[in-house]
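Protocol step 4 of 6: structure prediction from sequence.
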Amino acid sequence: MSKLCILVPAPDYWENWSLPKAHYQRLLGPDLAFRPWTEPCDLSGFDLILPLLTWGYQRDVPSWFALIDWLEAEALPLANPAKVLRWNSDKAYLAELSAAGVATVPTLIRESMSDAALASAREILESQRLVVKPPISGGADGTYLIGPSDPLPAEAIGQRMLVQPFLPAISEDGEYSLFYFGGTYSHAISKHPAEGDFRVQEQFGGVERGIDAPDDAKVLAESALAATDQLLDCGPLTYARVDMVRDGERNFRLMELELIEPSLFLHFAKDDGALFAAAVRATQS
């Protein structure tokens, strides 16, 4: 019998991960092991290691990259590959995907954020409402919506930050997430922020709904995954979540490509997650 391990949050991490844990135990078996990513100990006895619940890694970036380096140096069986985890950790990958022809949300990266950089971004992006966040981030940590007369938050000053225009469709249509396992489409959801907010995460009052993915959303998702393969020579990934939003012309644009620790929302999958389990089994062979 295969021995599988999922890397999970540090013991003091506050967010509840009991629901995805229950899904993974149901699909991958009761002997599934869980190890904190911050202190995984010896992993050499596992047939496959999945970093699916390494939530909070953005709060200890040096330790996170040290873990990836160690997993790679030890040649431990990993889904997704270490080179994919490293690349996907920093949202500068959006520039690479855009250069490869993928329609992304227009994105600027500022090495040292300032009021002048904010003003310049407003001109370049032709938007008075901007979203500013760290390139290495998760769960909307350090993410701000800045209006035309709002100052730059003190926490962002001098920091390396990513700047994007605020797209109103996030409040109207929501954010779309499409899920692929072993390169095959599984299911989709839309995520909607609470009234008066722009963040779609549950901890901020966001809600999710199962949907049938529009055809143009699938086209964008699959172009993003194909471009990732071309850039990294990684082949079909065990799991991937593709987040997108419509722009002012109602075209989908990639927001994020989640290849490390995405919530997979398997309770919305019509097959109850069978495709995900099959992709995990295929990765071991």
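Step 5 (inspection) to follow. The first helix runs from residue 18 to 28.
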